[in-house]
Amino acid sequence: MHLIYLAILAACLFGTAPLEVVLHVGVYRQRRRLALTVLPVAAVFVVWDVLEIRAGAWHYDSAYLVGVTLPGSLPLEELLFFLVIPVCAVLTLEAVRVRKPHWLIGDEQ
């Protein structure tokens, strides 16, 4: 049970990996762009999570965690969530852009 959270995150990455390989969306080749997209949002949510943990607004069930706790009592899995899920979302968005180039997304030049 301790690996469930990590397994879900791995499944998300595994499920979207074909978008990079099959559709050649190029998300992983553009590391700087991906980092500029994901890291600021992840930082905000990490701070938010730490504050809410300290305030007692929520906690994480240790039955589903590997037991690695980061500063602020943030579970490793939660940090990974804030990195993995946005990466999967970007992969999905870029796949839509490849398959449906006529669909306007909002960042077109």
What can you tell me about this protein's structure?
The structure is a single chain. α1 (4-23) runs parallel beside α3 (76-99) and α2 runs antiparallel to α3 (76-99). The chain has a two-stranded antiparallel ribbon. A hairpin with a 3-residue loop joins β1 and β2. The chain has one domain. It contains three helices and two strands; from the N terminus they run ααββα. The longest helix has 25 residues, at 31-55. The protein has helices at residues 4-23, 31-55, 76-99; strands at residues 69-70, 74-75. It has 109 residues and is mainly alpha-helical. The relative contact order is 0.19.
Number of domain units: 1
Average residue-wise pLDDT: 94
* Number of beta strands: 2
SSE sequence, one letter per element: HHEEH
- Reading side by side through the largest sheet, how are the strands ordered? 1-2
Overall shape = elongated
The level of helicity is 55-70%
Poorly predicted ranges: none
> Largest sheet, described in full?
2 strands, antiparallel
Percent in strands:
under 5%
> What structural class do you assign from the helix and strand content?
mainly alpha
Q: What would you report as the Rg, rounded to the nearest angstrom?
A: 16 Å
Count of alpha and pi helical runs: 3
End-to-end C-alpha gap: 47 Å
